[in-house]
Amino acid sequence: MNRTIKDCVYGLAVGDALGVPFEFRPRNTFNVTDMTSGGVWNQTIGTWSDDTSMTIATCDALKENNKKIDLKAIQRNFVIWKDYDAYTAHNNTFDVGNTTAQALDRRKGLDDLYSNGNGSLMRISPLIFVDCTDEEIAQVSAITHAHQYSIETCILYVRIGKELLKGKDLETILDELECSDTFARLKHLKNLDRDSIESGGYVVHTLEASLWCILNTATYSSAVLTAVNLGNDTDTTAAVTGALAGLIYGYESIPQEWINTLANKELIDSCLF
User: How confident is the model over 168-199, as pLDDT tens digits?
Assistant: First the structure.
């Protein structure tokens, strides 16, 4: 499969922008079919959030260091995003997760059980495109999210992405995936019904939801719309889904009108490697 970082990051950014207007809205209280504006953050159509910001900040640090992982460079980029509005759609940082904010202020990732939101998973996809060890993936997660659940989720997500790049089928990848009991549901995820899929922001649930959306759809657009319509943490669920759906189906599969509407594509492009 001849995919690039562009397929992945645009897949993520479009999913993010689709989800932003519906963040925190309960499941079954809306039905999204297209990109729109508004929501709790009152953003214009095509605006993406922290998911894309932290992803392209990671990309930019990797680009700067010839695709080598430099933890200080990645952390620096996160700080200038949070504190100085860098890497944003409209020069305005919004929707910073609590764990992320505290970790960046302290310059140390949080490792308690309650710090297992999806804030490192949502930004980890660029590591699919670089040579890295599980330990390095763990260290990149731990810039903000240092608990084992978050770390293992990121490691599994990158492994899945790398296998998808080889052209493997997602069901086969999950069947062969080595993981702890925390992730046991991945082995029979496709057959779970929608009510069994959680989308509230817990990192393990976000991984499950994103993979479930891909397993139960056949196009990029249906995957990300299914993710948004799960409700609650709509932007991150759709972003994490969209990154892998972009890998599977390619940039060309993303509806052109969504690409056209996406904010600040020049910035996104400048960070890609």
Answer: 999 999 999 999 999 999 999 999 999 999 99
Report the C-alpha gap between 27 and 30 in whole angstroms. 7
Residue listed under structure tokens 């770390």: 151
Which domain, by its residues, includes 16?
5-271
Which residue has tokens 């640090």? Answer: 61
Count of domains for the chain: 1
Q: What does DSSP assign to residue 233? A: S
Return the percentage of the chain with pLDDT > 70, whole number: 100
Sign of CA dihedral 149, 155, 161, 163: negative
Instruction: Output the six-digit token pair for 16.
Output: 């993010």
CATH number for position 69: 1.10.4080.10
CA dist., res. 192 & res. 158, Å (int):
23
178 close to 189: Cβ distance less than 8 angstroms: no
> Hey, how many other C-beta atoms are within 10 angstroms of the C-beta on 34?
12
Please provide the average confidence, as pLDDT, over all residues in the chain: 98
Residue 1 is predicted with a pLDDT of 76
